[in-house]
Predict the 3D structure of the following.
Amino acid sequence: MIEDVQAAIPLGLVLSIMIGPVFFVLLETSATKGFRAGVSFNIGVIVADIVFLLIAYFSSFQLLENLSNQPGLFVFGGTILLIYGVVIFVKKPAKKENVKASKGTYLGLMIKGFLLNFINIGVLVFWLGLIVIVGPSLENSPNRILVFFSSVILVYFITDLFKILLAKQLKRYLTQEKIVLIKKGLGVILIVCGIVLITKGFLPKEKFNIKDGIERISEQKNPT
C-alpha cells in the first residue's frame, strides 16, 4: 500500500501543474476573490474528477470504445468552453470586482468548478486511459486502485492549495485595469481550449481511436 501511495505522489504533482482551462480559472478566481473562493472552486473540480474516476472504473474499455465512436462529445464540450470564453472576454467589467464572497457565492464557485471540469470530455478520457494502464500494475485490486487514486487526488488537491495561496498574494497588487486584462486573457485561453476540443471532434475516426492509442501507450510502458 505504501508503494502505491509513493507511486501516486508524482502523478498528483504533475496533474496539479498541467496547463488547461481549469488551471487558469483557478488562479484567476484565487487572485481576484481570495483563498476561500479558490478552495471552493477547486472542490468542485475535484468532485468532477472523482465522478469521472468512478465512471472510468466501472466502464473501462466499453466506454473507451463508445467515446471513440462519439467524437461529437468533444464538439459539445468544446463549444461550451468556447461560448464561456467569449462571454468572459466581451463581458463588461463590474464597478467592483473584489466583492466579499458570500456562502451562496462559494456554492456557485463549487458548481462552476465542477461544470468547467465536467464538460471537458478529455478529462474523462484521461482517467479512463490511466486506469487501463495503471490497473494491471496494481493487479486490478479494488483496494489498491482505491488507495492509488485517492492518493493522486489528495496530492493534487494539496498542491492546488499552494497555488491558491500564491495566487492570493497577487490580490493586493491587482488594480481594476489589471483584473480586466486578466479576465480578457482568461477568455482567450478558454476560447483556444474550446477550439482545440472542437477540432478533436472533427478528426478522422482512424486518428481518433482512443482505445488503440491507450493500448500503444501500454505496450510502450510494458514492452515484451
Summary: DSSP finds nine helices and no strands in the chain. The chain has a mean pLDDT of 75. The radius of gyration is 19 Å. Residues 2-221 form one domain.
